[in-house]
Design goal:
This protein is of the alpha/beta class. Helix content is 47%, strand content 14%. The chain has a 6-stranded mixed beta sheet with strand order 1-2-3-4-6-9, sandwiched between helices. A 3-stranded mixed beta sheet has the order 5-7-8. Helix 1 (35-46) packs parallel to helix 2 and helix 9 packs antiparallel against helix 10 (224-239). Bound molecules: 3-methylmercaptopropionate-CoA (MMPA-CoA).
């Protein structure tokens, strides 16, 4: 199914089996993120289609996303700026803490808000031409889409600060070493790997996937004692689920598990 041909849309959504691929579709603008693009992400991740078990995020035309659409940026009162940023936070949370595991295919520009969106995804694959950058300092602004929390956590506050102060670029292998990407692959190998990983992840027990996506980064935010207690609750709930019954039975019967 593809509904990207709908007039005026800035994303294309293709669903094959239980995997949805969302393509940012403003190649002329290097997929810069305007309010419409944010709203389309919001609509998809607020209510993922029934039967979809994993999603892939990518950009059309060789770039993932060149960040905030600077052409649509207009003067805002401080309070309006806060609302704008909070809306990005809400939509990024829908991606990170939603129902679907999300794999991003990172090509070309993964800049500013593009890196903020990428950092909300659970698996990140970088192609050789990728360019990770936080150029907000050069634009006279500050990150507002969650980078201080998500990118800061991936690469550390110290390195993020240096990255912003100097506006430097990191490529695929550096991104891999730093944790901005989990995989560094050859040209055009990102989408095939994303499909393979999406299949693998979608075949996991749904409740296990859900706990991985919801619990791990939340537990990191907790004091040690609360984190360990929360982990025990998650472990106990998963171990008494139907998924655990099937997973353990399949292991003993020497066959692949079938969870859905
Ligand atoms: C854009 C944008 C954009 C390209 N907003 N229009 N993001 C940035 O600071 C990144 C700004 N963009 C770039 O550095 C470069 O465009 C790229 C490295 C991404 C690509 O370079 P290139 O040579 O392939 O393309 P180009 O000729 O620079 O751009 C092609 C067109 O896309 C051009 O428009 P045209 O009408 O002249 O053809 C560009 O203006 C347009 N374009 N990027 C608007 N970002 C929640 S807060 C987040 C804060 C941020 O994200 S700050 C970082 C913003």
């Amino acid at each position: 199914m593809a509904d990207g041909s709908q007039q005026g849309k800035v994303t294309r959504i293709d669903i094959e089996g239980d995997i949805a691929t969302i393509t940012f579709d403003r190649p002329d603008k290097r997929n810069a993120m305007n309010d419409k693009l944010v709203a389309e992400l919001d609509a998809f991740f607020s209510a993922p289609p029934e039967g979809v078990n994993a999603a892939i995020l990518r950009g059309a035309g060789g770039h993932f996303c060149a960040g905030l659409d600077l052409a649509e940026h207009e003067h805002r009162e401080p309070i309006e700026g806060v609302f704008h940023s909070r809306n990005w936070h809400r939509v990024s949370d829908l991606i990170e803490f939603g129902r679907l595991p999300v794999i991003s295919v990172l090509t070309g520009a993964v800049i500013g808000g593009g890196l903020e969106i990428a950092a909300s995804t659970h698996v990140r694959i970088a192609e050789p031409d990728v360019r990770f950058q936080l150029p907000e300092g050069r634009r006279g602004i500050f990150v507002g889409g969650g980078a201080t929390v998500r990118v800061g956590r991936l690469i550390g506050a110290d390195r993020m600060r240096e990255m912003m102060l100097t506006g430097r670029n990191y490529g695929a292998d550096e991104g891999l070493a730093l944790g901005l990407a989990h995989y560094s692959v050859g040209k055009d190998e990102g989408l095939p790997l994303a499909r393979e990983l999406a299949r693998k992840i979608a075949d996991n027990a749904p409740f296990s996937n859900y706990l991985m996506m919801q619990a791990i980064s939340r537990i990191q935010d907790m004091p040690r004692s609360e984190g360990l207690f929360t982990e025990s609750l998650a472990a106990a709930m998963s171990q008494t689920s139907d998924g655990a019954k099937e997973g353990l039975r399949a292991f003993l019967e020497k066959r692949p598990p079938k969870f859905r």
